[in-house]
Amino acid sequence: MPGKKNLRMKAARAAAGLSQADLAQAVGVTRQTIGLIEAGGYNPTLNLCVAICKALHVTLNDLFWEDEIDADPNAL
Predict the structure, then answer these.
(1) Angle, CA of 50, 54 and 59, to the nearest 5°
(2) pLDDT at residue number 68
């Protein structure tokens, strides 16, 4: 997902009332890491994805699964 903004993660974080710094502290990374994930500049490990989902009380599918509608057909 590098290069593609993760707006779902940003929306889930905002809905949970957390700042990037709050979420970063909850999952043990820096605020910059959370910002980079949301901006599409960093591809998190599976362990970090799971930790983020647990902190936000959502599923991996909710935040990180790319629907066919969202997929770029030219990327294949």
Answers:
(1) 70
(2) 57
